[in-house]
Amino acid sequence: MSDNEAMQALSDAGAVCGNCGDEPGDRTCPDCERCYQRYAAALRAAGWAPRAEVLADPIETEYGIRLTPDGPEAEVLNYASASRAVVEDRLARHRTGYPDAHLLQRTVRHGKWTDAPQD
Ligand SMILES: [Zn+2]
Question: Could you report the per-residue pLDDT of 68-84, keeping only the tens digit for each?
Fold first, then answer.
């Protein structure tokens, strides 16, 4: 049903099969409908998802530690699955060697689990 939103958007934008008299927004031609379905599938395969699905994905906060004030992103210690309390505990220990070490956080959005492609 959310693919239908993509199909309507394609139709509204004037996508047509070229063999019918459909105008932008019309949804009467079976050939156009097949085109929209293929376009929607191709967009999903390319990683696009309907807004409603993206917004429904759970959001988590991950924590990390930067040891030096302007250390590069690559040197951030990443404690992706640890709670803030656990990372704060690590931070306290790191501060003995790196007094400027500080807590970082970032927001992560997780999509649904799907089967990994077979080799
Ligand atoms: Zn058509």
Answer: 998 888 899 999 889 99
**Separation of CA 43 and ligand 1 centre (Å):** 20
Angle at the Cα of 50 from the Cα atoms of 44 and 53, rounded to 5 degrees:
105
What's the mean pLDDT when you consider all of the chain?
89
Given a cut of 70, is residue 104 above it in pLDDT?
yes
Which CA distances in Å does 20 have to 17, 33, 40, 50?
A: 7, 12, 20, 28
pLDDT at 85 over 90: yes
Strands (E), the chain: 59-66, 77-79, 102-109
Helix (H, G, I), strand (E, B) or coil at 107: strand
Q: How far is the CA of 5 from the centre of ligand 1 (A)?
A: 18
Structure tokens at 77: 């210690």
- Compute, in angstroms, the gap from residue 19 CA to the centroid of ligand 1: 6
- The domain ranges of the chain are 2-54, 57-109
